[in-house]
Amino acid sequence: MNGSATSAKNCSAIGALPQPVLIVDALGLHYVDSTHTEIAVPTLQELAKMFDHSLLQPTLSDVELERGLLLARGYDVASVCIKPYAVKFAAKLLAGSTVQASTTIGFPHGGHTTAVKVYESEVALADGATELDMVVNIGKVLSGEWNAVASDIAAVVRVAHAAQAKVKVIFENAFLQDAHKIELCKICGDVRADWVKTSTGYAETGATIDDLKLMRQHSPAHVQVKAAGGVRTYEKLLEVYAIGVSRVGATATKAILDEAKAKLGG
Q1: Is the pLDDT of residue 5 over 80?
Q2: Is there a contact between 244 and 219 (Cβ–Cβ < 8 Å)?
Q3: Is 226 a catalytic residue?
Q4: Is residue 3 part of a domain?
Q5: How far is CA 113 from CA 3, 129, 130, 152, 247, in A?
Q6: What is the number of structural domains in the chain?
Q7: Given 152, 197, 211, 236, which residue is catalytic?
Q8: Residue span of the structural domain in which 16 resides
Q9: Is 88 a catalytic residue?
Q10: Catalytic pick among 117, 168, 181, 226
């Protein structure tokens, strides 16, 4: 994982592996599973479909938003997560492609009332969003008011699922202890959220390997994991993929996928 030159054929020296491990050696990049058997690196298309291209920076102009949407469509990523006011424009520009229009709810601090989050969700869905990235009420999490936290998440999930849309629940792990994260994973499973997500990308820290492992371990199989903030290279993308991350929020989409194309020869 640290980029050291380790031959896949000699990887038995590292002992038992609890999950697939990325090996970097003179032959390139490999995965090795718990039995030390090499497994396939994902294709360029599979990697592209991990990306939620982020267009959330407050300073982005409409021209820059359009440019970002066209980039995402050209690279055939999973979705574009765009500022709420631009969802209708995004859905129109992405129509006919497989790239989803997504947006944020209760962003970035999560302190909106549940009623406001539900209204935001309804407007976004009406404008064409098919995925919603909502922020938990961080203060309620830190207060241990778990019924209120669960009710808040469940309200958005209900509205989204009624419209055949999906929900990613942002924890903002920079502010939380592991016990908070574990309880949030349980709640998200109980209310049938579609993803748990590390962060907004605007806190002091973003996705960490330890957090991603923790979230995958404590989330049920029907809940996927999204990393936001901190994935900026092809090698890091493969590292989080090996953990079980299915989505990555990124602004460096082009650079990472160009690097992947060069490495994979695709």
Answers
A1: no
A2: no
A3: yes
A4: no
A5: 45, 21, 22, 8, 27
A6: 2
A7: 197
A8: 8-39
A9: no
A10: 226
